[in-house]
Amino acid sequence: MKSFGCHFTVFFAVSMSLQGCLGQDSTPIVYKDPDTGIVFDTWTASDKVTNGGLTLGLALPSDALKTDATEFIGYIQCSSTNTTNTGWCGLSLGGTMTNSLLLMAYPYNQTILTSFRYTADYARPDVYTGNATLTQISSHVNSSHYTLIYRCQSCLSWTEGDQTGKTSTSAGSFGLGWAQSIAAPKNRNCPDNIVFREHDSMSIFVANLSSEVASPSYSSWAALATKTVTAGKAIAFSQTVEEVTSIYIHAWETLSSDAKAHQKQDKREEYANGEMFHRMHDEILMGNGFQAQ
To answer: Origin, by domain of life (predicted)?
Structure first.
């Protein structure tokens, strides 16, 4: 595994003058998502500096260019080199790796999982313990890319221990950073427990904001964020069908007689032969929880 002890401070100091060479432009491209109608400022890193390209996007509340926002709607599209090395990508909301709120995203079982991270040192970031909240609006995964649109609340200021930080939207521009890895994380079923190698490529840049980034439609767009994906927190999907059904048979056996009376007795047979496994898998994966009927 490569060391995380890179000289990111030096990189930040020179990156502003290198953006044109690296294909990372501060000027946003306004993009309207055809499915949701959400309008984003977007910044794209070309495949010259990434493996397949990467695009970040933001939409902000209507007054965000006058008053610092505390949340945003985000767009992130990252590339996968193949179906095995699906990779991960990350966003720094403060620009630098250290003392910034970091967001990781990666595909898993046709959905996208995320993890907030933080580090004060140039080391593998730990799970962020602050109150940032991510709710998904939509996600798409194919053989070459994965795309996530999400609402990120309490994400533009952060506190970790005695460290604090903030991104100012009223300034009209701020630092953003991204990172990308070809290799997929290990322990992918549980975002808090993933093990990941250092990124293969990264950049820090100044993101200039257009007048269209702050929209009066923000509240209606934010209301589209209804899905919280919590894969792996209820069950480890590396387990076999037999192991999983055994867990649910045990759960059945521990139900009270009154509770059993409200369940269909033939469901016990379905637990035993594994017929319910795929529904359990899909519902837990999508964050809906699992309920026997």
So the answer is: Eukaryota
